[in-house]
Amino acid sequence: MLHQINLLFRRFLTDARQLFRFFVIVNLIPCILLVFTEPYSFMGKVILVTFPLGMYLFVFSWLKNIGLMQLILIPQLIFNAFQIVLFYLFGESVIAVDMFLNLATTNVTEASELLNNLWPAIILVCVIYIPTIVIAAIGCKKRVHLTPVFRKKMACTGLIIGLVSYGLTFTATNRNTGSYKLQYDVFPVNIYYNLRFAVKKWQRSMIYPLTSKGFTFQAHKSVKSADREIYVLVVGEASRAVNWSLWGYERETNPLLSQIQGLALYKDAITQANATHKSVPLILSAANAEHFEDIYGQKSIVEAFKEAGFKTIFLSNQTPNRTFTDYFAAEADFHHNIRPASAGGIYTVNNYDDAMLPLVQHYIDSLPDNLFFVLHTYGSHFNYFERYPREFAHFTPDEATEVEVKNRQQLINAYDNSIRYTDYFLHHLIQILDSTNHTTALYYSPDHGEDLLDDDRKRFLHASPHPTYYQLHIPLFLWFSDQYRQEFPERYATALANQTQPVSTIVAFHTMLDMASITTPLLNTGYSLISPDYKARRRMYLTDHDQPIFWYNSGLKKQDKAMIEKNHLDHR
Q: How many angstroms separate the CA atoms of 301 and 328, rounded?
């Protein structure tokens, strides 16, 4: 039996046509999987297979040495493997622009935490593609050649299939976007388009210091308080509203904040993006989903406060990742990152967010000026049980790190503990501000939410090509000290009146400046939560290709829309 199998394998390795068919089929695997995941019309799904089939028939006919051709196409096999891993992680879509950028901006520690939970998919792609490369190498060494007649026939067939498929794209539809284009919707064309888009975007961000040089907000303080003023903008991480008890969660995850006076809670708030490298800059700048291009030529809210005479402090518990957030942090008069790196880019110091609190106190005590703080926390970033000291393990057991359905309750416990720790951190930060007896106020929102194996899709984490309800709906609140409420009672009253309005993270820049009585041509009080001018508008989400789309049409599924209805989110 073994002898017969060995003979069949030897014949397979020396049969050029068989190898040709094998390589074409192996490369088509992601295309076939996409047929079952993408929201395309029938013709759109057909093209998912026929266009790449034609392309591979044509390309594999270029060289007579079929093994050599597959070796040349090893980069495509890597993309195929990446795509299959993406299926395992998100269950849909292609390798997005954000996926490529995440590779460049994620540190080694975060990457290793994620890879530890992708081992089944990694094993699968190794089983598929390592033997393929070995077979290609054997075929190349043995000089297994295709005949000229066969190559010509396959090239012509592939060209015809490809051209017909391209023509059919005008009859196909992507139900999420209402259109259908090769560069957006057909694998592997779209991954090369996305890679090119990501490289160009990265290059533009690298020259940001030049493109923003000389920019000014023309900011000044319109109302000078007799009292010292301190304003704090806190950017959270991966915190979803559905797990905050202040937002109706059945578990008590906000025992301290629930006792604070002066809060204004915005129950219907969404993020403009579900990836940190986009969502945080959108919070810290005047750019928004509809005008994202502005970010390349403008500076951040830190610069606006500096122009208005504030001393600015940027504190971060996030690893530097060469994004706009790092540029914005460098604009501050004082910048501290409490998560230093060891050799090799592995971050061994696991400082908790409250390590920033002594620094806040230090600058309040040592600087007599009006102050503006930005605190970029690590919040509820996976692995969740590492985001809080063990005394905050209120919900147990909580130490599971493998992302499996059987571990969901432990993952939820750890996540909820991280929210309770955020509650502790924010409560103590507010206590520090309140104890100054000065005019102080605080804005908090996370960059985005998080999936936690919530339904039959088994989605986990964030930054997926299409967001979910859990990634979009975030907790957003303002806090005002007694002194602020006494000095500006109408602003506080307006903030409370706007609590029922639908909002998005577009409000951060405008609300913070309005709080501090800073005026600039870029201030739009129609986006300020403390202004009677605030008006609920159609909320937009920034797509993978940096295009604005109505958030409700951003690829949400029936499970997401059911949660939107359950939690009474406005469709605007």
A: 8
